[in-house]
Amino acid sequence: MPVSGRKHKHLCVIPIKGQPCDGCRARTRDCTFDLPPLDRGHRKRRATQPAAIDDSAHAADNHEVDVRTIQANVDIASGSLITSAARDAHLGNEQTGDMNLVLGPICNTDGLDMDMLIQTQDPEPLDLEGGEDQESHFVGSEALAGMALRNHLAELTGPVSDTFRRVSTDPQLPVYFIKQQSYLYGKPPSIGQDAFQAVIGACDVDGGDEDVLAKSLSVLESITLPAMPFIDPKRIDLACREPSQGGPIPFALLAGIIAHSTMYLESTRTLTKILWSHVLVGLDAEYRQPRLQTLQLAILLLSSRPSENVGQREIGLARAVGAANLLGLHVDSTSWRLPLWERRLRKRIWWTLLIHDKWRALLFGRPCYRILEHFYSVQAMVDKRSDLQKIGVLEQVIGELSLFEASLPATVQWNANASSFPGRSLPTGALSLAVSYYGLTMIVHRLLLEAITDRLPLQAKAAMQGGLVKCGQLINTMETISPTDRQLFWMPYSSNHVSNCASLLLMIASRASMLDPEVASLATMEIDRLATSLISHYTASHWDVAESALRRLSVLLLSARVEIPAIGTSYQRVNECLGIPVVVSSDVLLSLMGISELDLFAWTDPSQTWMGTQFTNPAQNGAHAAAGPSSYM
């Protein structure tokens, strides 16, 4: 055994007796390790996992392995690239066989499969398998139970087979993917590339921003991804620089990144609709051959502002969930034999889709596309329970939300930082998390008020006071938002949470007018304070979150000003800010806003009765509507 082999025994791997070890073969020199592989009494492989899964044996068929290729593969699998200094030092000393520079920075990576480091090649990524002519679809093992191939499926554990590929290492939980031919009706033209060129051309018109792609990628990496990491920028960089390793250049995704950044780049803000019109054409073409980048582009659309086309976003989310199921993202890929970057990306894309699904259900009163038993259920609102039972369930949820707020790290404790405004510094997405948290608590408080009847006046007063406190906290947060904060990441549902605050305040003012006039007066004062804050933000920078919230607030104030005359002044100020005439008829106001139906009140006060239906899965009755609040950044 050579000296370097004694120091780094993982190099002395002889997959085939009589041939040199992997380390010496990579350096094209004679191997001094003459002893055969030892049988150390390890448990033998199961019959269902033949040695074909060992990628080092597969690599042994290649007579020469490039160290630079190993370096690139390990970097990608680790999820974090090695520094350029370490890489240069390694490549300059590759004749010495010292692999510390390669393995050192990543040996402590959480969740990293150490067997993967020993292999000379990473497992074949599912996302890139088959090239441009084939795609891999998830298929449940139950669907194959009656097939004649059942006895042979257990043997399909290699990296790639002709038809099936098994990616799980657990013989009790087999996971199969089946290859399908892409573009059965003919391959379309390069629509994604055409969309990218159209986006670049639109940005360059009339002396526009020539470096818009670099700036957009910077916005994505510094503002969006720290809050919702559903894209790996290193994979994009690799695909653009070395398509042979990182896959084809994602032109449609790059176009979507440019369109997504329009809310953060003043030079392209006026081009939002034009750019998205080109991107949507590219997205339709992407669904002809769904990949992970297809879902990433769909999520970019769902996570972008302003959120105007609610109906098409609903259809787009359903389409993305269907593609995610096809690609097997609904199954935990932790133990799959896939590169680490792909396993991480699968989880992050799936959870991001789940976040959008839960918020859409809560805010618009529509059933969830995905139902998991980990989430809280508001089944108590539709069951035939007593009023006290309903109150108890909802108060328990409120208590758990308070515990969640208290458990947040100090870096995102918005209440603690708000007192030091304007000197405080919060990471991107933290204030969006705060508004989302208050939006969720206000939904629960509204449900609590609906559950309390007039026969329980004491409980009603307590619930109204609790709702006032949460509304006041959201308004305090809105008042402390600085111009810099407006440029950070904000979920497209933020304006819905703000208008829901106004809806709850109007509900409290209406119910408290007879029970407690003082609470009713406080509620109207809070409405005026909220309107003042939104008007200030909109006047300063035409912030789209404030504009969307003001438009909903105008409709709410119009519908309630007859019953609550004290809000008349706030209504006039909001309409003057938006440039909408103060009208008497709600129909006239809706027509001025381009809305012809009164159903828009479902924006802020949706029915929750759908949560008790049995159409999805009797074993998981009731859509678990309130997803874990930690996911809402």
What is the gist of this entry?
This is Xylanolytic transcriptional activator regulatory domain-containing protein. The chain is mainly α.
Overall domain count: 4
- Secondary-structure-based class equals mainly alpha
Oligomer: single chain
Instruction: Show unreliable segments.
Output: 1-11, 37-42, 44-120, 156-161, 597-633
Question: How is the main sheet built?
Answer: 3 strands, antiparallel
Question: How many E strands?
Answer: 3
Q: How widely separated are the two ends?
A: 54 Å
Roughly what is the average pLDDT, rounded to an integer?
72
Query: What would you report as the Rg, rounded to the nearest angstrom?
Result: 29 Å
Order of strands, main sheet, comes to: 1-3-2
Helix proportion: 40-55%
Q: Which geometry do the CA atoms define?
A: globular
Tally of contiguous helical segments:
27
Order of helices and strands: HHHHHHHEHEEHHHHHHHHHHHHHHHHHHH
| Proportion of beta-strand residues | under 5%
